[in-house]
Design a protein that fits this description.
By secondary structure, this protein is an alpha+beta fold. It has 15 helices and 15 strands. Helix 11 packs parallel to helix 13. The termini are far apart. Bound molecules: iron/sulfur cluster. The site of iron/sulfur cluster has 10 residues, from loops.
């Protein structure tokens, strides 16, 4: 991974692509790479949605190799939500593919001179960017279907939904998983709004004909990888709890400890916890033909993700994470897994962070906009965000600690 790909969206005559040596950033990867570039190149007082901000996407140090658990990806920018340097992390296939394509980072900078929406394609021959206004305001799921028609399904995508295009402060960046579904998200900090401000809707990654990155000493690498995998498999958390119940393994434990966010953080224990616990979630998924033990990218041996099917056995969304379960569940007084899964699907489709959205709806419920426990009302509120109505734009741009009514 010896190249940094830069796309200047504000260049004269349209977006300009350059690719070069990492220079000062040599040896950095993932979170270190994204935060170093933002810290060095983005003026601290710039507007997060202005031309001086940058969005940096960087795979991990070992991404693209055969190392287990090497497929996390980091996104960095000045956050429209906090105003600070934001690092948001995701799973999905993109890190492995970018690593094989030889890129240590993608940096998107500047601001387009018009309101066209762009599609960036990166493959073995380099990168190409083209305007495509037919994808404007598509949800992530429809977008991926459309991209599949054009490029097939042996690719990987990084994309934003309508929330990112509307530059909402809760907007996420979606990464497709092994089944080419936009289920993994860099959710925190509003990175999706920065990608929206750059006018980039989707990055298509195609590593056809690219080889896996090879270690300098294959024997030592193999030995180290083997002992790492054995350690993960032997550990009760990574070898048993996470594969069986996902991150939602935490729900019962944290509720018992009295620290489970409930009814807008006003309580630490939730009466309906048994209905939304990791144990119930795994049982529900298995009974409907879903899968509670699933990797979000190739080479994951922990397999804490899963697939959630609806009552008719149709795929609805990935297994909601612990954070989604408390934010959209207990924190809104909702003890219905199907409703939480539907909220998760809508969030992924619109491209919004589930923690931010659940916390905001909890505040809205406390403010009297809906009743705690009213799942239909919570779904309607998230749909307002997708529509970009006045209320939706307030909800989609609220910080979870800021009362909704303070913005009205
Ligand atoms: S499935 Fe879980 S453990 Fe595996 S890479 Fe994804 S987030 Fe990490």
């Amino acid at each position: 991974m010896d190249k940094i790909l830069r796309i200047d969206m504000g260049a004269e005559g349209g977006p300009k692509i350059t690719s070069g040596e990492p220079g000062d950033y040599a040896g950095l990867a993932g979170r270190g790479m994204t935060s170093a570039i933002i810290s060095k190149e983005v003026p601290p007082l710039c507007h997060p949605l202005g031309e001086s901000n940058k969005i940096v996407i960087a795979p991990g140090l070992l991404s693209g190799s055969a190392a287990a658990q090497s497929g996390r990806i980091s996104v960095g920018c000045k956050s429209p939500l906090t105003g600070g340097i934001k690092e948001s992390n995701s799973g999905g296939q993109a890190a492995q593919v970018l690593g094989r394509l030889g890129y240590a980072a993608i940096v998107i900078e500047g601001k387009p001179k018009d309101d066209s929406l762009y599609k960036l394609i990166i493959n073995k021959d380099g990168a190409n960017i083209t305007p495509d206004n037919s994808i404007k305001m598509l949800g992530n799921y429809d977008l991926i279907d459309k991209i599949k028609e054009e490029f097939g399904d042996k690719i990987t995508c990084i994309s934003i939904g309508p929330a990112g295009e509307m530059k909402m402060a809760s907007a996420s960046i979606a990464f497709t998983d092994m089944e080419f579904r936009p289920t993994r998200h860099a959710g925190r900090g509003g990175a999706g709004a920065v990608m929206g401000a750059k006018g980039v809707k989707v990055i298509v990654l195609d590593d056809t004909d690219m080889k896996m990155r090879q270690p300098k000493d294959p024997d030592k690498f193999k030995k180290a990888n083997k002992s790492f995998v054995q350690g993960l498999k032997k550990h009760p958390v990574t070898g048993e709890g996470l594969p069986a119940f996902g991150t939602n393994v935490l729900t019962s434990i944290i509720n018992e400890a009295g620290a489970f966010p409930t009814n807008n953080f006003s309580k630490g224990r939730f009466d309906g916890v048994a209905k939304i616990s990791g144990e119930t979630l795994a049982e529900t998924e298995s009974s409907r033909g879903g899968n509670p033990t699933h990797g979000c990218h190739k080479g994951c041996v922990i397999q804490c993700s899963g697939t959630f099917k609806d009552k008719d056995g149709q795929f609805l969304t990935k297994q909601p994470e612990y954070e989604t379960i408390w934010a959209h569940g207990a924190n809104c007084g909702i003890d219905d897994l199907d409703a939480i899964a539907q909220l998760d699907r809508l969030d992924d489709d619109y491209g919004i962070d589930t923690i931010e959205m659940g916390a905001t709806i909890g505040v809205a419920m406390e403010a009297g906009i809906a009743e705690f426990g009213d799942a239909d009302a919570a779904i309607k509120l998230v749909k307002e965000v997708g529509k970009g109505s006045d209320l939706g734009r307030i909800l989609g741009s609220s910080h979870c600690q800021r009362p909704v009514n303070a913005c009205i």
